[in-house]
Amino acid sequence: MAFQGDKPIFLQLAEQLQAGILSGAYPEGSQVPSITEYAATYKINPATALKGINLLVSDGLLYKKRGIGMFVAEGAQAAIRKQRSEEFYRNYIETVVREAKNLGLTADQLKELIQRGYDYGN
Prior knowledge:
single chain, 122 residues, mainly alpha, two-stranded antiparallel ribbon, 63% helix, 7% strand, elongated
């Protein structure tokens, strides 16, 4: 993982871990790397790694087993999927619908365009 852009590193770390949970790389109930492992692997301050991990703990996606480590919570994958679906809606769908209305497209025409994107898109 290469950290880049203006987004804080702890947020990028949290998002990468969420992506790993969503993809199944970290299944529910499995242990994730320790703060020390993240800090050493990515050459970041352990406090930065802890801050990223704690975001996921506060969201209920990870839980701590004292003296053992951090684990992926049951239902974490579904929760991430729901959260990202809502973000997708706010960041993309609302904009697309607004533009479609500005162009005078009906809902059916918009659905056809979306279907075309699914059928022939990348």
